[in-house]
């Protein structure tokens, strides 16, 4: 506002133009995440001339265009719908000063990385030296580090809060050995003990999400579900019922694993343990937020394929938590040893144990993660000598 970038919104004739040129573009992989970001942008911009707009798939394109034509300074979008409106020449990129990629590693896993590259190479997109580019994630695998080197300014900053790829210290983690046929009974037992405290139950498949939600409703536990096959209005209704407490339990696939910020989620239950440790980190990050404490319980089956994939990383995450109440079960360490032929883990301090690591320099890789940061704090507005920020934060 001080630089006058939003002054055009005060001009009536700038509205309803065929081509809108936002100053900021924020990209996130799912509709739920981008809508959450938009709502926060709207709160910050309330009472100003800055106008945020959100567009995502699953809604009519005409409605998205109608919102854009009323004026757009901050565009919050999912990758596919963003490229669609750019190709229709309804959004211009020449005025972009801020480009934010939220959960960039998730976009890679979901097959959106080609869309991100198309966005970066679109006509009018300012060069990386001429824009402020930010990337946010709790996990930073090697492919995303390589992408960061391509799209951030060469003299970028890498800010780490807590261990990269590690879990929040406010989350008590518990791994229970439960056979497949005993999971439903164990889940019901836990939820009856939990009562009406807000709980997210994660499962592997969309079909399982509906089956478990139906089972819990039959057992008189108020419950809803969310997954990618549900219509947008159904997903919004499910999240609304969960946020309000009308349904204190929600059964979800990985669509709800990243970024969602819902108050007073006290428990996360991994009914199906994920096959990737990064997803485990994101899932349990739905609780223990903003300094609050939470509890994450995971059901594990010794002979499961997903356990074989995740066991080594899971033991490392539990070991690096350095919490008295987080105990690595002996049977889990044995699984890690037998699956990978590696010794069990010691409780020695991890190289990732620093709470806030800020150093200058390039990413330093260790098993696909990094622990580099910046030695000098940069201004929130991105001054800091013109450097660009690459930010890593939990969830």
Produce a short descriptive summary.
The protein is an alpha/beta fold. Helix content is 33%, strand content 18%. The chain is globular, with a radius of gyration of 22 Å.
Number of strands: 16
Strand arrangement across the biggest beta sheet: 7-12-11-8-10-9
Secondary-structure element string: EHEHEHEHHEHEEHEHEHEEHEHHEEEE
Portion of residues in beta strands equals 15-25%
Radius of gyration over alpha carbons? 22 Å
Task: Tell me, rounded to a whole number, the average pLDDT.
Answer: 78
Describe the fold and architecture:
It is a single chain. With 395 residues, the protein is α/β, with parallel strands linked by helices. The protein has twelve helices and 16 strands. Strands 7-12-11-8-10-9 form a six-stranded parallel β-sheet, with helices on both faces. It has a five-stranded parallel β-sheet with strand order 2-3-1-4-5, sandwiched between helices. Strand 9, helix 9 (232-244) and strand 10 (249-252) form a beta-alpha-beta unit. Helix 3 packs parallel to helix 5 (113-120) and helix 11 crosses helix 12. Mean pLDDT is 78; it is low at 7-13 and 342-395.
List keywords for this structure.
395 residues; 16 strands; alpha/beta; 6-stranded parallel sheet; disordered C terminus; 18% strand; 5-stranded parallel sheet
């Amino acid at each position: 506002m001080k630089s006058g970038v939003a002054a055009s919104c005060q001009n009536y004739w700038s509205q309803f133009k065929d081509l809108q040129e936002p100053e900021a573009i924020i990209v996130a992989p799912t509709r739920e995440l981008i809508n959450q970001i938009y709502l926060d942008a709207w709160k910050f911009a309330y009472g100003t001339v800055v106008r945020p707009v959100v567009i995502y798939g699953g809604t009519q394109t005409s409605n998205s265009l109608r919102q854009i034509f009323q004026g757009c300074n901050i565009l919050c979008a999912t990758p596919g719908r963003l490229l669609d409106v750019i190709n229709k020449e309804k959004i211009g990129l020449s005025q972009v000063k801020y480009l934010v990629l939220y959960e960039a590693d998730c976009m890679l896993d979901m097959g959106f990385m080609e869309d991100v590259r198309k966005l970066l190479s679109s006509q009018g997109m300012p060069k990386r030296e001429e824009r402020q580019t930010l990337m946010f994630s709790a996990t930073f695998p090697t492919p995303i580090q390589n992408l960061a080197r391509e799209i951030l300014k060469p003299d970028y900053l890498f800010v780490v809060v807590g261990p990269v790829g590690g879990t929040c210290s406010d989350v008590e983690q518990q791994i229970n050995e439960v056979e497949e046929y005993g999971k439903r009974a164990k889940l019901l037992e836990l939820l009856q003990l939990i009562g009406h405290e807000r709980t997210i139950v994660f499962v592997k498949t969309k079909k399982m999400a509906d089956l478990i939600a139906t089972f819990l409703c039959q057992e008189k536990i108020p419950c809803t579900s969310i997954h990618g096959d549900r219509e947008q209005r159904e997903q919004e209704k499910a999240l609304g019922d969960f946020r309000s407490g009308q349904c204190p339990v929600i059964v979800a696939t990985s669509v709800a694993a990243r970024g969602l910020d819902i108050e007073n989620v006290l428990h996360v239950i991994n009914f199906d343990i994920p096959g990737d440790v990064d997803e485990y980190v994101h899932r349990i990050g739905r609780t223990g937020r903003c300094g609050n404490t939470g509890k994450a319980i995971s059901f594990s089956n010794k002979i499961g394929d997903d356990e074989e994939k995740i066991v080594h990383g899971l033991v490392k995450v539990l070991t690096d938590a350095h919490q008295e109440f987080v105990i690595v079960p002996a049977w889990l360490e044995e699984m890690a040893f037998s699956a990978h032929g590696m010794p069990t883990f010691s409780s020695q301090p991890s190289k990732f144990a620093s709470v806030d690591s800020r150093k200058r320099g390039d990413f330093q890789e260790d098993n696909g993660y990094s622990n580099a940061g910046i030695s000098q704090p940069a201004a929130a507005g991105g001054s800091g000598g013109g450097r660009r920020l690459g930010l890593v934060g939990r969830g």
